[in-house]
Amino acid sequence: MEKEDIIVAVHKTNEQNNSFNILSSFSDGLLNGFRQIGIKAYTTEECNADKIPFNIAIGFDNAGIEHWQHILSNNITNVMWSSESVFAKNFDTIKQFVSFDKFVVFETTPADKQALTKYLPELKHGYIPQAVDLDLWKNLHSPKEIDIVYFSPMIDIDEKLKKLKETMPELVFNLMMQIYELAIKNPNHTFWQITNAVTASYGLELDIEQYLLLFQNVAELAMYEQKAKMIQKLSDFNVRIYGVGPWEKYIKGNIKYMGQCNLQESIDIMNKSRISLYCHPMQQGLGINQTILNASAAGTFSLVSDSPSIKAEFDDSLGYFNHSSFEDIADKAAYYLKNEDERIKMTDKAFNITKERHTWECRAKSIMEIVD
């Protein structure tokens, strides 16, 4: 198919329950990314209203799901781009449409590959990481008024553990806790690797419902436990936390919980921060999260998990901390706050990497290569 013959419909996302409204900005960024490389792209609503025929439809998570049946039944490719691991969300939707020949899933984590191959061998899928819109996430050259910022939700970890212990059979709960402890100690291992190691010791082989039950409970718990541990190691620093949840339960010292903020507010806050924290979750294991890209675009230094996938992409343009013990994070934070010239030099390098490899224009090119 020639480039000029391709028309893409982008399913718009409108997440009213997401205070950051990140997925809506993803949809806008991807739409513009296609247009920047010369592809005719419209929203699905525009295509339907103006009767514009399209060859490909694409959207994040369940965006535009009301149109999928019609699109796929007419032998048109429909791509669902999952914003997290497909085992954390979207799996039921994927099962619903997997039988359609033109249904494709993009994952934002390559860590899902082996589990998907086992549990949905007929699914057409591949890894494409998140991206950033440089027209949205701009460097405003604001004065740096905040030492360290962290954008993240939080749950009540103790309450979650208590509920699991009360509701799960003892064997299942013990299995969960073994996976949980290994996940916290080995954050660069995938959930698939850890779970297989534990279940093999019991001679167990999980079906898909069992795997989902473990993933959706244990991976989430491990993620929030790691976030709490990370923040508690920084109690002597002026850290500002933004996001929904009971953060007050896990902070002390100089750390302040600031509540929620919307997308535009988060751009302004990121610009005013010297350091942006990022703790890599299992839900995006081996992937690259938009938080790092957003910080780089805004001219803010990132202090992140020492993850091989992030380090392979950004090398020495970011600061890295031990994601298992967090024993070095305070020293790293103090060093980069003190050494401003080095921090700025590294941030400039991270911006150049982001601009060259991680914009929505870059992703649109990758998608067109797959189509070709």
The major beta sheet can be summarized as: 6 strands, parallel
Q: Helix proportion of residues, in percent? A: 40-55%
Shape: globular
Mean pLDDT: 95
Strand content: 5-15%
Distance between the termini: 7 Å
Strands, count: 12
Please trace the helix and strand order, writing H or E for each element: EHEHEHEHEHEEHHHHEEHEHEHEHHH
Low-confidence stretches: none
Number of helices: 15
In spatial order, strands of the major sheet run 2-1-3-4-5-6
Highlighted features:
15 helices; 372 residues; 6-stranded parallel β-sheet; alpha/beta; 12 strands; 14% strand
How does this structure look, described?
Helix 1 crosses helix 15 (360-371), helix 6 runs antiparallel to helix 9 and helix 7 (170-185) crosses helix 8 (191-202). Strand 5, helix 5 and strand 6 (124-127) form a beta-alpha-beta unit. By secondary structure, the protein is α/β, with parallel strands linked by helices. The radius of gyration is 21 Å and the shape is globular. The strands form two sheets. The chain has a six-stranded parallel sheet with strand order 2-1-3-4-5-6, with helices on both faces. A six-stranded parallel sheet has the order 9-8-7-10-11-12, with helices on both faces. It contains 15 helices and twelve strands. It has helices at 22-36, 44-50, 65-73, 91-97, 113-119, 157-167, 170-185, 191-202, 208-232, 263-271, 290-297, 308-314, 329-338, 340-357, 360-371; strands at 7-10, 40-43, 56-60, 77-81, 103-107, 124-127, 146-151, 239-242, 256-257, 273-278, 301-305, 319-321.
